Model the fold of this input.
Amino acid sequence: MKNLILTTFIAAACIAIAAALPASGANNTKSSREEEGVVHTANLVYGSGKTSVCFSDQFLTQIEKDTHIRTYKKFHAVKLESEKLYEYPFAVMTGEGTFRLTKTQRINMRDYLNNGGFIIASAGCSSKKWNNSFKQEITRMFPKKKLKELDKSHRIFHTVYDITSSKYKSGNKKLPELHGLEVDGKVVLIWSPDGLNDTANAGANCCCCGGNEIKSARILNVNILAYALTH
Done:
């Protein structure tokens, strides 16, 4: 049932993507939730109420400008243990500091990823404590799988934009460090230890204080969302 719900939602979104990449493309009303082909993104609430307040949603506007993919421009707060998670083909998971998921949250997240869902995970301010907690949780959920760093040939770096390097907050320039979790040969989760939050565009009260975020985060997030919907 869960798989059917998610597959149906993704199929509806793909109707709008058919000729998708690249091309050209604000739906803030209640009716847009029911509009066929509009992609909605979940902002996960997990652990003991941890969630993101500093992950920019501007990539949702950017992808509609540069492709046929149509999006709802704001995130929806969704509890990780909730059945509502299966209404969203794409989810953001981010935060700072240590955390621990409940057993129910782990089961739901694992099932979501095994049944067609996609998660982008990124620590706020490149938080080492958050990154360590996240990797521990992935090991608990998928003891036989490992997060693997993506090389420059992976489709995620070339789905909409060709990304071969990126400046970081500290100024160094290299291929953005992304690690993927695969299920049945497809990446279903992307984690960046350096940060994909695009904090500069996340709001006046957000900063990357001491972290080393990737400067090309917005276009990387566009590529990741396009990959999730077309692979």
